[in-house]
Amino acid sequence: MTTLSVEGMSCEHCEQTVEEALEAVSGVTDASADHEDERASVEGDADVAALVEAVEQAGYSAQT
């Protein structure tokens, strides 16, 4: 599992947007985001840089 710190999420819609962006990355089997904890968890063997890029393209800031 990979955990990312995600800044900019403020609601459940934001969580859904981040989850969809992460699930679109090759190698991801499951993703969940929590705006209150400002974290996203990703299952699978996706490249971490690709995960960060996907979150940033969705309009949020991410780091490992």
UniProtKB/TrEMBL annotation:
Molecular-function GO term, any one: metal ion binding
Source domain of life? Archaea
Identify the Gene3D superfamilies for this entry: 3.30.70.100
The organism that produces this protein has a lineage beginning with: Archaea, Methanobacteriati, Methanobacteriota, Stenosarchaea group, Halobacteria
Q: Which CDD domains does the record match to this protein?
A: HMA
SUPFAM superfamilies assigned: HMA, heavy metal-associated domain (SSF55008)
| HMA domain span | 1-63
Q: What is this protein called?
A: Heavy metal transport/detoxification protein
